[in-house]
Amino acid sequence: MSELIEKLLTGDKRSVARAITVIENYEDETEAIIKEIHKHTGNAHVIGITGPPGAGKSTLTDKIVKNLIAKGKKVGIIAVDPTSPYSGGSILGDRIRMQDLALEPNVFIRSMGTRGYLGGLSKATHNAVKVLDASGVDYIFIETVGVGQSEVDIVKTADTVLMVMVPGLGDDIQSIKAGVMEIGDIFVVNKADLFGAPRTATEINMMLDLNQNMKRRPPVLMATAGKNEGIEELVDELEKHREYLAETGELTERRLNNTRMEVIELIESELRKIVINHTEEEGRMKKCVEDILAKNTDIYTVRDEFLKSIRG
Amino acid sequence: MSELIEKLLTGDKRSVARAITVIENYEDETEAIIKEIHKHTGNAHVIGITGPPGAGKSTLTDKIVKNLIAKGKKVGIIAVDPTSPYSGGSILGDRIRMQDLALEPNVFIRSMGTRGYLGGLSKATHNAVKVLDASGVDYIFIETVGVGQSEVDIVKTADTVLMVMVPGLGDDIQSIKAGVMEIGDIFVVNKADLFGAPRTATEINMMLDLNQNMKRRPPVLMATAGKNEGIEELVDELEKHREYLAETGELTERRLNNTRMEVIELIESELRKIVINHTEEEGRMKKCVEDILAKNTDIYTVRDEFLKSIRG
Predict the structure, then answer these.
(1) Which residue among A271, A289, A311 sits closest to B260, beta carbon to beta carbon?
(2) Residues forming CATH 3.40.50.300 domain(s) in chain B
(3) pLDDT band for position A113 (50/70/90)?
(4) Which residue of B lies nearest to A311 if distances are taken between CA atoms?
(5) Fold of A40-248
(6) Nearest residue on chain B to A295, judged by CA atoms?
(7) Which residues of B touch A303 (CB under 8 A)?
(8) Beta partners for A49?
């Protein structure tokens, strides 16, 4: 294990891949890995990319990443598809177009689907981000296929969330509403050469102007990823947002909050195990529910007795 | 409170309505009510009715209930719409047709939507069932609008689950698959006068025959609720299932299992409160997450410290 971590910290791609596989499958080892690499995390700029299907997120990610590696940066990409049963380096639909990136020495790509991750896909993704972070990449992109609740849960802990829109969403833009719009730090209308792009941008701007509670008004950009247009401006905005996060203390605030949520989830997950172990021990629960049904006691009294013995 | 419960136990409809309103809104009072009525519960036959939108569940429920009250039975109905923000006796769409039932002295009807129930709609529904049960009704119907996961969660704790199907579902019948089909104790093809009804029944029978793990093969009936056809047979099957549950010990088994789940959820819910109170006390959590970000410690070490102090 320590050899794996040593090599991972030097940026060895095979070790990164192996560490992520471990995280996907073994709970105890995950804890050991995350503990060991913790000191080496927190340096990468984590960017979440989300938006409706067909918005061209993969192509956009591809062009942004190529722009960054041309500038000598190291990049990690986690392509997340909460609806796909495949994972572990498999190729997800459109992402076949991204495969030439996988040959770049300074790019690491990993696909994650829904295949039984311990503690859920969201937790597995966040742990994979930590592994990539510790491996020394400058940027980590979490790209999702859709813009539903599970995608929001996955990308909302990123430092910067890039929301990719596309002309011709029509009334569908209304469905990408509160809760989803709120997590966007930068908006981009991709396929800006299509009819209706300026109107889409106007609609997004109007929706953003309705929200008066924002600390910072997200910019709305135009891009045509297929023609490599608007990519430089987008990379500039990502950089500007990173500076904004650092200067205002917002980065620390976001990370403190994410860490808080992570710790609470870990505690609850352990407590759940304790409850199950404790209540099932020596058929204790069986006896109690029989007593409840026989009206000798009730659910709240049983709950209180269990709570007392769990804490005692 | 004790006066409310006294009147509730005599079957007073206004007291039943008030008790359910309390359950929807106040946590401590819910506990007091459920504890007090516990000895008077477990007598009603609880029937969950679910199926795809447009299957005619409301009309079917209406006819079954009318059949039962003609036989001198007392009936409670909880109409659940997990997608509706309305609740508390409001009229939900098609259910307006059921409103003449509300005038019957031996029928109690309540609608429940998604309006911020403490602990969720499912828990609120189950507590409302207990109140109706204690009020002395013979049957309790939980009718849902759809057949999604939240509907399944709500009806699966019923003694008998009636799955309402309709001709012309076409390939959609495939989407009402594993996990949903499994909870049905009785299947009925409603609107059986429509074209394709026998084929739908055949398809359901084929799906049921594929499942070899069933203790009991659910029957598939035909009905045309709008014309009051097939209702008597359906009521007979409900009775037969009740007898089956009693004779085989399955009723006790199901109720023991439901009670077990209920107790575990109550324990977890209390532990969650303890975690939040404990970690937020004196800014303990704030200090810890700052230490994690400063690399003085890590999430797992913090989790273990909190677990120790929560249990100690």
Answers:
(1) A289
(2) 39-248
(3) confident
(4) B311
(5) Rossmann fold (3.40.50)
(6) B39
(7) 263, 266-267, 270
(8) A143, A162
Identify the DSSP state of A292. Answer: H
ipTM metric: 0.83
* A266 contacts B300? CB cut-off 8 A: yes
What's the CA gap between B127 and A288, in Å, rounded?
19
* B298 contacts on A by Cβ (under 8 Å): 34-35, 38
- Number of residues that this document lists for chain B: 312
Residues in chain B closer than 8 A to A34 (CB atoms): 298-300
Nearest-angstrom CA–CA distance, A181 and A178: 6
Is the C-alpha dihedral spanning A222, A223, A224, A228 positive or negative?
Answer: positive
For chain B, how are helix, strand and coil distributed in percent, rounded to 5? 55, 10, 30
Chain A hits for B285, CB-CB cut-off 8 Å, are 260, 263-264
CB within 8 Å of A290: residues ≥ 6 apart: B256
The predicted model scores a pTM of: 0.71
- Please return the burial class of A273, using the count of CB atoms within 10 Å of its CB with bins 0-12, 13-18 and 19+: exposed
The amino acid that residue B78 corresponds to is I
Region B39-51: mean pLDDT is 94
Name the residue of chain A whose CA is nearest to B127's CA: A299
A293: nearest CA partner in chain B: B256
- Structure tokens of B153? 């969660």
Fold of B39-248: Rossmann fold (3.40.50)
Q: Which residues of B touch A293 (CB under 8 A)?
A: 42, 252, 255-256, 259
Q: How many angstroms separate the CA of residue B306 from the nearest CA in chain A?
A: 8
Interface test with B, best of A273, A299, A311 (most B CBs within 10 A): A299
Strands (E), A51-150: 75-80, 107-112, 139-144
β-strands A107-112, A160-165 pairing = unpaired
CB A175 within 8 A of CB A196: no
B127: tokens are 């507590």
Q: Identify the residue among A130, A265, A281, A289 best suited for mutation to test binding to B, counting B beta carbons within 10 A and taking the highest.
A: A289
Q: Quick check: A117 pLDDT over 80?
A: no
Q: Is B87 exposed, middle or buried (0-12, 13-18, 19+ CB in 10 A)?
A: buried
**Residue partners of A284: CB distance under 8 A and separation at least 6:** A278
- Residue owning tokens 């299947």: B187
A16-72 pLDDT, tens digit each = 999 999 998 888 899 999 999 999 999 999 999 998 878 889 899 999 999 999 999
